[in-house]
Write a structure and sequence with these properties.
alpha+beta; about 20% helix; 8 strands; about 25% strand; about 270 residues
Amino acid sequence: IFTRAAADSALKEWYLPVVRSQINEKVRLLMQIERGSEQVSGRRAVLSLHVRRNQGVGSRADGATLPTPSSESYAEERVSLKNHYGRFEITGPTIKAMETDRGAFDRAITSQMKGVVNSVRRDMNRQLFGTSDGVIVRLAAVAATTAVTFHTSATDTQKRQIEMGMVIDIGTNTPFTSAATGVTITAIAIGSNGVPTGFTVDSAITVTNGDRLVRTGSGGSGAAQKELTGLQTIVAASGSLFNVDPATEPVWQSLVSSNSGTLRPT
C-alpha cells in the first residue's frame, strides 16, 4: 500500500506568501502626537508663553487716581531636542539569498529597515507615556541570579514593555547609576492573564528592591535626560517643565486628580 508515510519523500511543501507579523505594532499615542507635530532643527525649540494678565485695572470714582500701570507677562519655553537611533546589520550573502520571491518571504534590507523603524516608533510611543527618565519598570530584589521578578508597584502596562532580546541596564535613579549594564533578556515568564511575571537574563545579576530597568544607555533625568518628556512628567503638579516653574508661574501648574489610586466609575 502506497501510504502517506511512504510518499513523504516525494511530497512538496507549500509556502504561502508574505511574513505574518505576530508583534503588536500599534503606536496610538505617537500617531496622535504626529498629527499636530512640527519639524524643528537646531539646539532646541523655543516657544513664547503668555503667563500673566495686565493687572493695571480697577474701578475708580470720577477724577480719582487711575490704577498703577502694569503689563502682560511672558515666559520662554525651551524644549530640548532628543535623538533616537536604530541599527541593523546584514551580510552580503544574506542580501543575495533574499533577493527573489523564490528564495525568501521578504527582502533582507526592506524587512530589516521596516522592522527597526517600527521598533524605534514603538519605543517612542512608550516614552511618550513615560516618566522621561528611561525607567520602564521597577524590580524586586534578587541576588546573583539570572531570574528576575517585578517590584510590587509594577503595573501590567509596565510589565508588557518587556520583550525578548531587549538589552537593558538595571540600577538606581536620579541620576541613573547602573548596577548591571548591557544584559540581554533571554526568556519571559507569562502569567495566566497574559502578563509577564518575570524574565531571565543572560548573566547573573544582583538587584536591590525597587531598582529601575531601562534600555541600555537610555537612563537619565534632568540634564542627563535622553528620552522624550513623557505625559507623566508633563502633567505633574510640581517641578520645572521646559524651563518654566509652576512655583513661579502658577498658570503652568497641572491639576492632578489622582482619586487616591481608586478607579473612577465609567
